[in-house]
Write a structure and sequence with these properties.
The chain is an alpha/beta fold. The chain contains 9 helices and 7 strands, in the order βαβααββααββαααβα. A hairpin with a 2-residue loop joins strand 3 and strand 4.
């Protein structure tokens, strides 16, 4: 089985491309979706213990948690130490199930693949990218997003140019959905022949 690492900076269209892989029949493990699920399951009691008052009715209150960790690098590290191993175990279980099913290609959608040293977990890397101005427009259109938050997130991520340089495939999402879908199809076709 070939494990594809799907990544890209904020606002580049990674979730859209992940959906396109899934629509084409390639199983996708979405790290963001796993976090949402874990925040209502295994992670909730651990996070409440570390950050009291951040869990309501057994589910992590993302706004309360954000207030507890924002601007506090040590708190953020404590949170990552709880969440990252759980997400990794979830992804490992997904891959084991795909291997057992005889799946040829599987995608790990990992937003911070380069930042978290995830390169060793995948066989090929697909980076989703778009010009900086398109990225900026997409991100600033999100509810609650500010220029300051956007700049902070960018500062914490490996630059897009460096991600593209390290990628096996780059999918440009600045065109139409059909163009992006065609690019996804080309990657699947090329890896299916590998």
């Amino acid at each position: 089985m070939i494990v594809i690492g799907l990544t890209g900076s904020i606002g580049m269209g990674k979730s859209t491309v992940g959906t396109m892989f899934a629509d084409a029949g390639v199983p996708v493990h979405d790290s963001d979706e796993a976090v949402h699920r874990l925040y209502a399951e295994k992670a909730a009691p651990l996070i409440e213990a570390a950050f009291p008052g951040t869990v309501t009715d057994g589910v992590v209150d993302r706004q309360a948690l954000a207030r507890s960790v924002l601007g506090d690098p040590a708190a953020l590290k404590r949170l990552e130490a709880i969440v990252h191993p759980l997400v990794r175990a979830d992804a490992d279980a997904f891959l084991a199930a795909q291997r057992a099913a005889g799946t040829a290609l599987a995608v790990l959608d990992i937003p911070l693949l380069f930042e978290t040293g995830g390169r060793d977990r995948v066989d090929k890397i697909v980076v989703v990218s778009a010009p900086a101005e398109i990225q900026r427009q997409r991100v600033l259109a999100r509810p609650g997003m500010t220029e300051e938050k956007f700049q902070h997130i960018l500062a914490c991520q490996v630059p897009d140019a460096e991600k593209r340089r390290q990628a096996d495939f780059v999918i440009d999402t600045s065109g139409s959905f059909d163009e992006t879908r065609a690019a996804v199809s080309r990657v699947i076709a090329k890896l299916s022949k590998a």
